[in-house]
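quick q for whoever's on today - can somebody do inverse folding on this one?? i tried earlier but teh output was garbage lol. tokens:
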């Protein structure tokens, strides 16, 4: 099934983490790693956004709008394509049956507060059994070590990943086609990261207080293709 939507004020917050502290992706996925001065690193990304006007292609209605929080790991798939492994997808409770039934997404109910980061200044609060509270402020483009190139290369590394994979009994792929968008650099203060600590318990708690980089995309239109259930079997090479 194909969908179209727009993301408003999409906040990307990224952390550099030693690969040994992260779960091993299902084959043929592999963590997208980079070599820094002090060893090898992988990454964790949280994306918070307001999804607006979501509808199935060819259907004039309904058009749905709601906040969302995704926890994902940058990976390479069996074709070597930069992709993401989607670990968790948080949405309001009323969206869960729609996301699971029509979008076949690993959606979990959460409550949300804040958002609206168009000026580069906002607060996001998410609660899904445990809290995640972030304060966002405008900043000069900057990223901590390990370096991924300049600021455009850093944004590209985290954003330009058109394939998302969802693991379960079988590995399923979601493809997104979207245009380029200007990224507004921000600084993020992590006030509470209990939810992240619960999802990735092998990552030391102090890691969450030191994001590698963060940016906001004010508005991006997306076309989303949810591929059929069971196309990609865990352990098999994903066809192109």
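ok took a stab at it. sequence:
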């Amino acid at each position: 099934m194909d969908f179209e939507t727009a993301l408003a004020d999409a906040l990307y917050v990224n952390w550099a983490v030693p690969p040994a502290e992260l779960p091993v992706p299902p084959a043929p996925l592999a963590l997208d790693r980079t070599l820094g001065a002090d060893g090898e690193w992988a990454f964790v990304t949280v994306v918070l956004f307001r999804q607006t006007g979501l509808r199935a292609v060819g259907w004039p209605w309904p058009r749905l709008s709601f906040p969302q929080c995704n926890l994902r790991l940058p990976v390479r798939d069996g074709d070597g394509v930069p992709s993401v492994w989607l670990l968790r997808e948080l949405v309001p409770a009323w969206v869960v049956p729609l996301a699971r039934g029509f979008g076949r997404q690993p959606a979990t109910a959460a409550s949300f507060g804040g958002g609206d980061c168009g000026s580069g200044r906002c607060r996001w609060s998410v609660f899904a059994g445990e809290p995640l509270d972030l304060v966002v402020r405008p900043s000069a483009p900057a990223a901590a070590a390990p370096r991924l190139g300049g600021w455009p290369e850093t944004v590209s590394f985290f954003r330009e990943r058109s394939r998302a994979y969802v693991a379960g009994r079988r590995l399923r792929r979601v493809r997104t086609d979207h245009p380029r968008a200007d990224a507004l650099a921000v600084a993020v203060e992590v006030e509470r990261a209990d939810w992240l600590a619960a999802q990735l318990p092998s990552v030391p708690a102090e890691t969450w207080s030191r994001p590698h980089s963060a940016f906001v995309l004010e508005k991006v239109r997306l076309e989303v293709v949810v591929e059929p259930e069971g196309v990609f079997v865990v352990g098999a090479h994903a066809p192109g």
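fwiw The longest helix spans residues 151-159. also The chain has one domain: 2-226. so keep that in mind when u check it
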